[in-house]
Amino acid sequence: MQHVESKDELLKEAAGALEQSQRRMEATKLAFDMVERGKIAPFADYSSFETKIASLMGKDLRVVEAALEMDGNLADFGKVASEGRATGNDLTSNFFHMLADD
Fold first, then answer.
1. For the chain, give me the number of helices (H) and strands (E)?
2. Residue 20 lies in a domain
3. d(CA 23, CA 20)
4. Which of 1, 15, 56, 98 has the fewest Cβ atoms surrounding its Cβ within 10 A?
5. Residue 49: exposed, middle, or buried by beta-carbon count in 10 A (0-12, 13-18, 19+)?
6. Which one is predicted more confidently, 78 or 96?
7. What is the model's pTM?
8. Do 79 and 44 contact (CB within 8 A), yes or no?
9. For 71-89, how does the pLDDT look when each residue is reduced to its tens digit (9 = 90+)?
10. Is residue 13 part of a domain?
11. Are 99 and 77 in contact (CB under 8 A)?
């Protein structure tokens, strides 16, 4: 009977390692997505990459991913800037044009 318990323990350990590996792949994808979106600076070295992955793995990755998606849809500065220079006293339009010009 001891042999069966060992096999069950090995299966649990393998499942845990697989889950951890998948989670790391998701964290890696999110880290690079953050770089591509300009949310964080590109990784200076492997150590900073590993630190970011470790940080992400301590968080709910679904929440981080949802926050990135929501943040990307909040403002489209290119659209505002392409509408031409602000005229008049429209403060909101002037503000977004100022941001887009920087």
1. 5, 0
2. yes
3. 5
4. 1
5. middle
6. 96
7. 0.62
8. no
9. 765 555 444 444 555 455 6
10. yes
11. yes
Answer yes or no: is 89 within a domain: no
pLDDT over 50 (residue 1): no
> Exposed, middle or buried: residue 27 (CB in 10 Å: 0-12, 13-18, 19+)?
buried
63 within 8 A of 41, measured Cβ to Cβ: no
Q: Which residues fall within 8 angstroms of residue 39, CB to CB, at 6 or more apart?
A: 68, 71
Q: How many domains does the chain have?
A: 1
Q: What percent of the chain has pLDDT over 70?
A: 67
Is the CA virtual torsion 21, 24, 28, 30 positive or negative? positive
Nearest-Å Rg of the Cα atoms of the chain is 22
The pair of three-digit structure tokens given for residue 36, joined into one six-digit string = 């591509």
Q: Strands, E, within 1-102: which ranges? A: none
Residue 40 lies in domain = 2-59
Residue 27 resides in a domain: yes
